Amino acid sequence: MKETSANLKRMTEFGIGEGISEIIVATKNSPSGEKPFNAAPFGIIWKNDKMFLRLFRGTKTCENLMQEDFFSANITADSVLYARSTFYDLDSHEFSTLNFSGTIVPVLKEADRYVVFQCKNRVLAEDTILIDIEPIGFKIQTPTSGFLPNRGFYSILEICIHLTRYEQTRDPKYIEWIRHHWSLAQRCGRKNDKEALAILKKRMAGFEDDF
Ligand SMILES: Cc1cc2nc3c(=O)[nH]c(=O)nc-3n(C[C@H](O)[C@H](O)[C@H](O)COP(=O)(O)O)c2cc1C
């Protein structure tokens, strides 16, 4: 489904543009789950004026979005939040909630901005699910003065992605890529990028010999 030009303009104002924009998706867990909400990083794909998510099966987010039609896309430059939400559950008190026509939608309190999306159509493939999405709500929580590109921050995102793939496949190419980004994050990163590295180091303790 093509987006309206008003929606595309609003998305651009919120920093989500063509290509793949990295955000943290917050979803509601099933009532039988231990925790009420889940958060994890995903890419919003914007192509030919359409927006969608491509979710690998097996993730909690994928499971939740097969049941729920609403989620929030949280925009932040906090690499610690990325590292924690990729590999661990966030605490319940880190979420606030919105009510969309009787449906509860979680958002991250610490996000600078968020966009609420509605899932429109799901296409199931063998390993992935493609979901057409439409933005239905926008909010700025913390006006920021702009985020200057920092290689340390992007390297933390790369390490998170490669480490999830390494955990699934044990393909040694990911070790090389993680090493490369590790040294960049150490060299260029800011204080919270170093804190994110400490979280990732703990996560990698189980595979110390591989690294
Ligand atoms: C920056 C970034 C972008 C990601 N994008 C995607 C994506 O588009 N699709 C996907 O299936 N996994 C993606 N991942 C991996 C998931 O975040 C990861 O599998 C996570 O553990 C899923 O958590 P969950 O089981 O709580 O949903 C991404 C990870 C990062 C760090």
Automatic annotation (TrEMBL):
Gene3D superfamilies: Electron Transport, Fmn-binding Protein, Chain A, Hypothetical membrane protein ta0354_69_121. Residues 21-136, 150-202 form the DUF447 domain. It holds the Pfam family DUF447_C. This is DUF447 family protein. The lineage of its organism: Archaea, Methanobacteriati, Methanobacteriota, Stenosarchaea group, Methanomicrobia.
